[in-house]
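Holo prediction. Input below; ligand is nicotinamide-adenine-dinucleotide.
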Amino acid sequence: MKQVVLVTGGAGYIGSHTVVELQNSGYDVVIVDNFSNSQSSVVENIGKITGITPKLYSFDLADEKACTAFFHKEHIDAIIHFAAYKYVGESVEQPLRYYKNNLYSTLNLLTAMKEHHIKQLVFSSSCTVYGTPDVLPVVETTPVKPATCPYGNTKQIIEEILRDVCHTEHEYKVIALRYFNPIGAHPSALIGELPNGVPQNLIPYITQTAAGIREYLQVFGGDYNTPDGTCLRDYIHVVDLAKAHVKALHRMQNQNMEQNYEVFNIGTGKPSSVLDIIHAFEKVTGKVLPYKIVSRRVGDVEKVWADTTKANQIMGWKALLNLEEMLASAWNWEMKHNQAK
Ligand code: NAD
Ligand code: WQD
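Structure of the complex:
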């Protein structure tokens, strides 16, 4: 019998790519998404890629009654929990909305897991938990720094909740994946990142600038203590990231976890500056990207990238796609998406 995986937030950017990889790996998928930051057409497009349209439930996971009703209806073997609000700046403006959505959803899922004897959970954490690290690259044991925004705090709090729950629920297997900067899109260009309004993140801003939707890219800060003065990040192809979730499920199902709560960095291990990204984008697309170096963005970390040894060696996962492939896929997605509008 096929394992049934509940993918919360499965219509979102990372969730949709993960659903594709799960289906390609032989899992049955049920998506729960309230489309607060996505569109139902994504689910149809997943069906076009894999030939299987996943089962979909649309409700708010923070709604305890709706959540309970769902678990009474569907048999679930494992959960991958993406559903959350994710914008740093917005979380500073609307902290309660962020705490309610991200924490209630997770608590409702954990409650249902207990009631329905579901023992496996993969959680979407973030490199944001490392804040401004003292030593680079960061390993999983690098100290977590006090969160600088409510969004980041929800990730830290949830990691702690999961650790506590696993401490008493010995049969649980929980893996938190700390994603670095996911970018790019599926090679079909049928799914990708769909930011609402003006993009806050670098890559959608770049592709929209190249598409003529934005006049120029503002490069936030040219005076950092880095080789070219711009910030360093660990950008990872969303398809590689999606595959890490399949590996995490395998690890939980093969009964070979050393502890029942584990954390993994999911990045490439390679830092790139904002100017590296611009130059690589220009190279792969043949477009000239207008940009201006402006003052630093408040709250930006100067540099952060992952040591991925733990995921490589213990989970058997490694990022395979390079920066050019990430940016080419992001550009294909932008062009196809704009044509479809
Ligand atoms: P996304 O906004 O594209 O996807 C999240 C999905 O969850 C959306 O489809 C949204 O409609 C849904 N959702 C949100 N709250 C819900 C609720 N209460 N009930 C039901 N559905 C709900 O975000 P993403 O980029 O795919 O991120 C997925 C996860 O990964 C999030 O937890 C995010 O915090 C985490 N993460 C993202 C990044 C990144 O840069 N994208 C980096 C690190 C971690
Ligand atoms: C990348 C670099 C900017 C936009 C965010 C969250 C983090 C995690 C990943 C969820 C930075 C620069 C950006 C622009 C620019 N998400 N930039 N001009 O800030 O590294 O991480 O997403 O967990 O928590 O904070 O990503 O894409 O916004 O920025 O120069 O218009 O690009 O300064 O150096 P960030 P980003």
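The chain has a mean pLDDT of 96. That is the main takeaway for now.
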